Amino acid sequence: MMSPQDFMRRALELAERGAGWTSPNPMVGAVIVKNNTIVSEGWHEEFGSPHAEFVALQRAGALAHNADLYLNLEPCIAAPGKRNPPCADEIIRAGIKRVFVALRDPDPRINGRGIDALRRAGIEVIEGLLEREARKLNEIYLKFKTAGRPFVTLKMAMTADGKIATRAGDSRWISSQRSLKFAHELRHRHRAILVGIETVLADDPQLTARLAKKTRNPIRIVVDSRGRLPLEAQVVRSAHQLRTILATTDAIASDKERALRRASVEIWKLPARDGRVDPHAVIERLAHEQIDSVLIEGGAEIAWSFLRERLVDKVLFVIAPKIVGGRAAPGPVGGTGIERLSEAISLREITISRLDEDVLYEAYLDKESTVPP
Prior knowledge:
- By secondary structure, the chain is α/β, with parallel strands linked by helices.
- It is built from 12 helices and 16 strands.
- Helix 3 packs parallel to helix 4 (113-120).
- 43% of the residues are buried.
């Protein structure tokens, strides 16, 4: 016999099918249960498509009357800017008896109003079932709605001895094929991918999600304070097909700027800090552009600049079973670093898993710990 937790887990599984497609909206799954049996399911497939509740109710038809509904996120109500019909009204109209909601929607247009509407209609609402799992699933949406700033993930691949390349600069390929596919899935799930100019000069990456099962390519951002981005780089040659941004400063030469613009590269001239693009300015511009998430993939100096300013939310370190050695071989995080271990950046909510032979280390930044300027 299935439990309420089992039904909510199913709702979460369904919701995840929309990963990378629903942004800037949340991922939502809906499960309708009657006599301990699932009679209908639905999920939000992509931005602008019918909501999960509406899909599940349409599929259930008359079976929805006096049934239970499981949702990983509070149903929406009528609000300015909403494209879809209010789900709370649909739930009431269908005669649902009881609704399990994992998490309230922090959108100020909703935030409890959907639940209140159900209760006023006489529907029992049970909140908080698998709330932690629901928060993790929609961490990008929740951060953007509550803070108005993008969720920042730092992903780095390294050897077991903490190297991202050999002393000669060879970095292909450190991790396994499965880890590479995982990286492309991450790109699909984030609205933007960000790298520093050194990564482009060393690897000439495409920065696409071409290996993901279902692909929505991210917006590509290269941080390059002086405008060294080569016109023949792959990201430049394909800029007419995929949105590509150069985050730079006034130090870029005017003729280079014009050439990049002619190649369809979007130029963001941002404030400098210590001669480099200010990472805070990057985050502020992303927020202004309504880009809700960014995946930072390299290199070491970019990693440190965002870590030092506590702009990273989550780190993903893929550790390959290889040893490179060498004092000149670079590590994943550069910069000046810290002087005392008491000042180290602390991590929390650590999860360790496997990607074939590689180890995936996942953790969140402890924003309370301090790093000297």
